[in-house]
């Protein structure tokens, strides 16, 4: 019956254990990788989210803003969740507050 199955040989105890401290090295490597991932990806994203939340909370009537879709407008009315932008004469659009991308300096709309 051993014609199709090759015989298995037991390994010695030294070869199976690997180098001393191998398990500790693997755990340390995983912790190091998580720490690196945190400082490269998670921390900057949280910082940007916090800055965006403070910018949206500080919106006031009369601010000139740009939305995430690229529409420029002047804030005419603010609700809890929505902002009404005056895009041009007699045209007002309603957006969610989170869709505001940036607040522009005063006079930007007239310069464009």
TrEMBL record:
The keyword Magnesium does not apply. The chain crosses the membrane at residues 25-42. Coiled coil: none annotated. It is found in: Cell membrane. Signal peptide: none annotated. Keywords: Cell membrane, Membrane, Protein transport, Translocation, Transmembrane, Transmembrane helix, Transport. InterPro entries: Preprotein_translocase_YajC. It is a single-pass membrane protein. Its main location: membrane. It holds the Pfam family YajC. Belongs to the YajC family. This is Sec translocon accessory complex subunit YajC. It comes from Zhongshania borealis. The lineage of its organism: Bacteria, Pseudomonadati, Pseudomonadota, Gammaproteobacteria, Cellvibrionales.
């Amino acid at each position: 019956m051993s014609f199709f199955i090759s015989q298995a040989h037991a390994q010695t105890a030294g070869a199976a254990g690997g180098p001393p401290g191998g398990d500790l090295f693997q755990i340390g490597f995983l912790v190091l990788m998580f720490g690196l991932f945190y400082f490269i990806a998670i921390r900057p994203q949280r910082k940007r989210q916090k800055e965006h939340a403070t910018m949206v909370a500080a919106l006031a009537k009369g601010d000139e803003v740009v939305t995430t879709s690229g529409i420029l407008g002047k804030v005419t009315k603010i609700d809890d969740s929505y902002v009404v932008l005056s895009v041009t004469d007699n045209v007002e659009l309603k957006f969610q507050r989170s869709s505001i991308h940036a607040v522009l300096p005063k006079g930007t709309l007239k310069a464009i």
